[in-house]
Amino acid sequence: MIGVTDVLTHVLVGYVIGTLLSIRYARLRRAHVTLVMIGALSPDFTKIDLVFPDELVSYLLDIPFSWAPLHLLGGTIVVTLFGSLLFAPEYRRDVVVLVAIGAASHHVLDLGLMTSTGYSYAAFWPLTEYRLPAGGLYLSTDRWPALVAGLCAVLVWALERRVGVGGYEDSASLE
Questions:
Q1: What pLDDT is stored for residue 171 in this prediction?
Q2: Which residues sit opposite 138 in a β-bridge?
Q3: Which residues face 133 on adjacent strands?
Q4: In 100-128, which positions are buried (b, 16+ CB within 10 angstroms) versus exposed (e)?
């Protein structure tokens, strides 16, 4: 399947970042780690195009339409803010921050991709259409980034268990 290793890499990096944050900040629990992971996956919500192609949505809505902006800064902000509305008002600030951290990790990883043009995508749209030089580190189909992210996830998981934070040792405290 195309993109499975790319998606897995983003989710694993989100897990690593979220878990490290939960080790550093005692108030962060498992649910907070999940929010970072969702954020790391959120720019790839554009893959909904596989189920509902742009042309179909354009036809149904009778307006020009594209899922592509969801993978850019503007789309990330919209997804993050709308997603925060699913939570109670007192949690929204934390949700926005954690999802944004995850999404930022996604964009940083994508800026390291190897491209045929030598330039990355217009990541900062709608602020600017400037395209940074591509990092040229790997292809989105490469397996090694997922392996490295998986190894980091295992190491962070072991560290988290050893340190005993993140709400794992006393799940009754969440109730």
A1: 43
A2: 113
A3: 119
A4: bbbbbbbbebbbebeeeeeebbbbebeee
User: Which distant-in-sequence residues (6+ apart) come within 8 Å of 5 by Cβ?
Assistant: 140, 141, 142, 143, 145, 146
Cα 85 → chain centroid: 18
What is the band of 70 on the pLDDT scale with cuts at 50, 70, 90? Answer: very high
Entry field: residues in the chain: 175
> Looking up tokens 């006393």, which residue turns up?
170
Q: Which of 16, 11, 48, 5 is nearest to 154 (CA)?
A: 16
Question: Residue 14 is inside which H or E element, if any?
Answer: helix 4-24
Beta strands in 70-173 (DSSP E): none
Residue 154 neighbours by CB distance under 10 Å: 12
Please tell me the predicted confidence (pLDDT) of residue 1.
46
Does residue 120 surpass a pLDDT of 60? yes
Q: Can you name the residues that pair with 119 across neighbouring β-strands?
A: 133
pLDDT computed for residue 78 by the predictor: 95
